[in-house]
Amino acid sequence: MESSRCVGLMAVVAVSATVAVFALEVHKRLASFFIRKLESEIGQASNRGKKKVTFAPDVVEPSSNSKEYRRRWSSRRRPDSG
Questions:
Q1: Which of 28, 47, 71, 82 is the most exposed place for a label (fewest CB within 10 A)?
Q2: Where in the chain are the domains?
Q3: Which 3 state secondary structure label does DSSP give 64?
Q4: What's the pLDDT band for 82 if we cut at 50, 70, 90?
Q5: In angstroms, rounded to a whole number, what is the distance separating the alpha carbons of residues 75 and 72?
Q6: Cα angle at 76 between 74 and 78, to 5 degrees?
Q7: pLDDT given for residue 48 in this prediction
Q8: How many other CB atoms are found less than 10 A from the CB of residue 69?
Q9: What is the mean pLDDT of residues 21-37?
Q10: Are 69 and 62 contacting, i.e. CB atoms less than 8 angstroms apart?
Q11: How large a percentage of the chain has pLDDT more than 70?
Q12: If residue 11 lies in a helix (H) or strand (E), which one and from where to where?
């Protein structure tokens, strides 16, 4: 009779510990998910406006004539040989 109580008590402790660990893991995941979602919403609120991109003046769109484009760029990029 004494051993059956001990085995029962061990089973209750094991199940309780398993439930507690499971609840802790679920809580951690939900909390981290909530924090990530909150951070993303805060980040989106501060970055609502569109960013405009400006290119340097020497950046040009290549024309349909690739030989002319290469000729213009090669004349600009020639290093001084002196």
A1: 82
A2: 1-45
A3: coil
A4: very low
A5: 5
A6: 65
A7: 60
A8: 14
A9: 92
A10: yes
A11: 71
A12: helix 2-46
